[in-house]
Structure formats: structure tokens, C-alpha cells
Amino acid sequence: MSSRNVNKQEDYKRKQEQFFAGLSKYKDIDIQINPFSMNIEKRFEEFSREYDPQFFDLAKNMEERSIAMIEKELKQLTTENYYIGVRINGVGSARTLKGKVQEVCEGAIAKVLSSSGYQLAIDKEFLERYAVTEEVLFQHMGMVNASRVSGDEMAHFYNYHYIRGTKESMSVTSELSSNYSITDTILDPNEHAGIIEMRSKTGTKYVSFLPIAKFKPNLRFNHVVQLSQELPFPVEFHLKGHFEPLKGGGGIENKKERSNRKLKNVARESYEGGDQESKKGKLNRFMLRDLEEKIDNKIPILKWIACFAVFGDTPSECQKRSSAVINLIDSAKVEVVNGTADQMKLFHKYLPAEPLFNTKDWLHYTTVEGLSEMMIGLDNRVGDNIGFPIGCVSNLSNVNGKRVEEIAKACRKRVLYNPFLASEQVLGKVSDSPHIAITGPTGGGKSFLAKFLFVLSSYMKGRGLYVDPKSEYKKWIMRVINNKKYQKKYPLFISYLKEYHFVTLDPDKKENWGVLDPICFLTGADAKDTAESIFEQIYDFSDKEDARVEMLRNVKKVIAEREAGEKVGLMHVITRMKQANNEEVKKSGNALFEIVEGSTLQLAFSYGDTEGLNLTNKVTILEIAGLKLPKATDDPRNYSAVQKKNIALMLPLGKFCEQFGKRDYAEHTYVAFDEAWIFTVARGGSDVVADMRKVGRSQNNQLILITQSIRDVNTDDESGNFGRIFAFDKTDERELILEHMGLEVNEDNLDWLATMPARHCLYKDLYGRVNRILVYCPFEELIEMFKTVEETTTGRSEEMFAA
């Protein structure tokens, strides 16, 4: 969950409050959040099953380079495991007097044996007595989607605390898990102040425990656990809690009364001495009155201690990480300290199942509502569970002047991308749409991201089409192919690029005339609607109703003739208008002929004798030579005649992409359409986009729509939803972006969006999760291929002398 999604966070807190309240009858709880390996190698192993055999070696090479890059930047890619332990031995399961007596006797015997250094043998019958209690508890754990820990996981969980920081501690399947004994580790707290040195056969590591010492009187919005997950290194969290009895001899009510009498005496003495009661005294008495209400309402109250723990390869690294945690949590007005003299005490106190009994230091009393404000168990990840890394979650506040590589190194959570995941039935997904929308202004980074996703998709099984109206992508690809350095360093990649099929539609070449004629490659309503939209785009029929009716009539006739087997095309509509008896129709026909003749529109007008495009290659880059499109900021009323023609040409191009996606239902197809915003200014353009989006999951087709405005991502039609949305900041659309991504429109979020650095965008994944990510491609050959502008000497010099 994003830290920017306030409403969802409040809902989460209420559920957590309800969950913790339901544990109150079990008295003791033990919560631990430990780093765990994402096992990126295993994820890639599963993911590689979908690599295209033709480019398998190249995909494996990128996989290996990705893993090496992650290890270099982060040492190990980790996630978090959230453990909840609940003590149930105090909850009797016996239903008869004899059974209850037996339970009490066995409990007493176990304590006597334990104090003498012995253990009571646990048999199956003993465990079965608690089966019902455990089952009830497990059902309650369903509120947080918990699963039972296996025997191997439990063994690893206990061993973890003695091998933390090592590679073996991050995986249940390590060899160490089966033959390790906790007595193999030597703990030394004396060499470095505030740090425990842990020596074992796995090596030497250093760990520090950082207790939470003090909160503000009101725990609202501290979110300290969620906050700690944003650090660029693994951080543990541990909490031991005991639900206090509200009434009775040792209950909270008696403690409250004693404290109340003491505060009243202090206040009386102050008044008698002529002084006012202190602010602290007034606050404490107010809190006691509030506590009284909570006791009357039987709200569970918890006594607890908690700490963060960090580890490192060296004492210096451990110390730096400790300081980072303390400083970050301090920003939430919560005091975390380095228990310098108590490290061994803290180590043993936070071992699994160690009770809170007799603990006095760093003790807190709160309601379960206060506990929920810490946001325990949240994760701010986005992206897929397997796939190629395309970036990282980045909520860093100040990255000005930093290079992309530096930012990535400070971000621990990588964003993975599995191109065809949307077509699969996966638990937790909120969208089955394979389509991707990438929005943002010119120069914001959307084309870079689109090309990155397209290339990664091409490593998988299936066929791809990249529509490049700007006719620039081929130039950069050829530059990489012809680069001697890249030929030597990346032969697999160069061989892959040489398999690209480039189709440049040049209206000056007669063999290209009519290849986008909608009459020739479309049928029925699709052909009719597209043809009419082209005519409406290039000619103003507003005061020429006779000409418009004749155009519509001839379009219908030509389509019928084509379906009957005759060689006719869109040009025949103009020819017949020129031959009409009606003077207005004839003039319009002549005008249309002059508009089409010698222009880019010749690509869409034919006499029906041109072979259409036949794109059967693995990867095709389709561009149109000499296409001059307006800027997104230009007023449509001021478009030139050439711009209007070129916009009209996009309509059959879009319909062609739709046909490409429909061609083979059994094969994955993916179409990236750059400058897709043009459809929104073309008559009938929105219908073309809607039709392209309908060719989706059932036809195994994915549309990557690259457009200027978030307005172009319309989700009113369920069949047209985009499963993934990447939104780069756009000054005049910040409120719309936040609304569309499901984030609250408030000053904090608007400022957060306004200060979003370059190469950052908001990402909404297939699971409905939203966060800010850094688009990160660490491969130089791909970066060169994705360029859109030349890097100048002036620009390099400016960066060299930046402050």
C-alpha cells in the first residue's frame, strides 16, 4: 500500500485494530518482521519457461546481468516475512473436570522439570488437546491472510536469530537450516559499543538492537513500521505484547486509581503553594480520564516493547544503518535509541516465544488502536512476482543532481515485469486486462519506458509490432547495430536486433500506395466507419450535405463491391464523386482528389490492386516517412492541412494494429503505439482506440498505448480497462493523475507529484497497487537504443560543473 493512499491506510488500521482486539483472550503475542531472500534466481528459473527459443540465450544473458547488477547494488534482493506468534498454553481446551485437572497438573510438572533443566516429552495426544484452540485461532488469523508455518520454516525461524545477516539466514532451503545448532554461534557484545559481534561457521556479522523509547502522547499517524520499510537496507522489527487485565487486583483500573490519586495530590500541593498545575500534570490527568472510558468500554489494553534491528558486514556498516533508522524514525516524532549497554539483554528478550514477564525498560501501554497506528505488516511493493526488473520503488525526497544509478542503489525494492501475466489466472489480481497505458508530456520518459517494455516482451514467445509515427526508433536501433564496441561486447544482442523487420511506409514509393486502405483490409462496419472518419478528417462537409450523403453512399457501395470480389478501393469513392451530376458533389470530389494526390494520404487510398501489409516477423518496427504531426499542446483549430492529413492516416493505422492483434488467437501478440494521443483529436479516433483495446485477453493481445494525457485512459468501458498504468507528471493534469491512480487529491500528494524527479512515474499494477517508481535500465546498449535526442557536448559540460 502506498504511503500516499490515506483512505486505504485508515481502512487498514481499522482492520488491524479489530484483528489485534481478537487476540486479547490469548494474553501474549510475539510479532517479528524479518528480511527474507526474494530468491531472484528461482523466480527467473520459473519465468524463463516462457522465453522465446529463438532468443533464449539473449534472455538468459540479460537475466544473469540483472542478477549481477542487483547483487552489486544491494548485495541481496530481499522481501519481508511477517510472523505472528500467539501463546495458547494458557487457554484450556479441556471440556471435562478431569481434563482440566490433568492440564493443570501437567502444566505444574512442566514448570518443575523446566526449572531443573529437564523438558517434558511432548506426545501427539498432548498436541491434540490444543487442536481446537489452534483451529479457532487460525480462523481468526484469516483476517490478515496468515498461513501456518511448516516444520522446516519453524526451524529456520529459530536459527535465523543466530545467523542473521548471512545469505543462509535469508532462505529456508539453505544447507545450514538442517544441520545448524544455535550453540555454533558466539555472541560478543564487548568489542564494539552498541553492537553484537556474531561469529559462526558462516562468517562474522554485526547486529544492533534499537528499542522504541518514546512516542508522542497521541500515537496517530506515526506509521513507524511502514516507514522503516523504505530504507535501502533490510530492517527487522520485533514486538512483544501482553494484554493487561482491565479490572481486578493487578488490573489497569487499580493502577489508574493509584496514579490518579498521586496526580491529584501533586496538583493540590501546587495550588496550596500558589503555583499552577503543570501542563504535563493536566495532560496526564486527561489521559487517565480517557483511560477510564476505555476500561468502561472494555477496550483491550496492551503492555508491549518493540525494537528495530539492523545488521551489517562490518561494525561501521552496522553503525551507519543504526543511525539511518534512528534519524528516519525521529522524523515521525518517535524516539528510537541504541541500547548500548543492553544489547545482549535485548538479543535474548526478542528471541521467539520469550515472554514479556518482568520487563521494565522501554515499556509502552496502548490500546489496540494505538498498536494499529504503527502500520505493522504493510508492504509498498508494486509490480509482478516474477519477471525482468524495470525499475524500483523510489520515495526518496531529494535526488536532485544524482544519477539514475545512484538513486537505484538507494532503493531496495525492485519492480518486476512479466509481459503476459494479465492473461493468467493469478490470486489477488484486480485486472485481467493485458493492456498498458503510459502517459506523460514530451521528454518525460514515456517513450523510453515503452521501448523498454517492448524489448522485454520480444524476449518472450509471440510477435510484436511497434508503431513509430515519429520515424526515429529505426535510426537509434541501426546506430547500435553498427557500433563496433557493442558488436564486440554484446554479439547476442546485435544478432537479435538484426532480426528486427523494419517497414517504412513512404508515400513517394508507388508500391506503398493503398497499403492502409481500409476498404482493402477491413470488412463490414469497421471498413465503413474508418473510411467515413478519414473523409470527415480531411474535408469539411459541414455546409455540403449533398456531397456528404454522396460520399457515404459511395463508401457503402464500394465496400459491397469489394466483398463481392471486385478490385475496388477508397479511391473509387472519390472517382465516382467527381463523375456525379450534382455540381456540389463534383466539386467536392475534385477537391478530395487534389487533397489526396501526391500526399501521405496515398497510403490509405487505392484502386484495390495493392497488396496489403503482411507482418509475419517476430518483431516489426512500422514507421511512416515524412509524417508531420502537431504537438499535443497545439490548438486543433490551427492545424495545417498537412497535419490534418497525417492525423487521418493514423485511423487506418490503428485499425491495422487491431487486425494484427486478432490474427492468431493462439499466439501472444503485443502492439506498442507511440503518439496515440493523436487519436483523441481525430474524428472517430476514440472509436479506433476503443476497438484496439477490445482486442485483449481473449485474443492474447497486448496494447501498449503511449500518449500525452491521462484523459486518454478512459476506464468507463470495462472491456477497455488498462491493467497497468504508468503516469509521468504533467503540470496541468496532476489532480486527474491522482484521481485516476486512486490516490487522494490533497496538497501533500499534489506537492509529491510536482516534485517527482526525472525518470520517475506513478505505477498502478495488475494487483491495483500504486506507488512511485524509478524507471531503471542499467544496460548501456539498451539505453543507447532508447534515446530520442542527441547528447550534446554542452549538456555534458553542464553536468560536469553542476553544484
Automatic annotation (TrEMBL):
Pfam families assigned to the protein according to its UniProt record, in alphabetical order: AAA_10
Region (Disordered), start-end ranges: 248-277
Biased composition (Basic and acidic residues): 266-277
InterPro entries registered for this protein in UniProt: ATPase_SAG2001_prd (IPR016628), P-loop_NTPase (IPR027417), T4SS_component (IPR051162)
PANTHER family in the record: SLR6007 PROTEIN, UNCHARACTERIZED PROTEIN YJGR-RELATED
Protein name stated in the entry: ATPase
Organism: Enterococcus plantarum
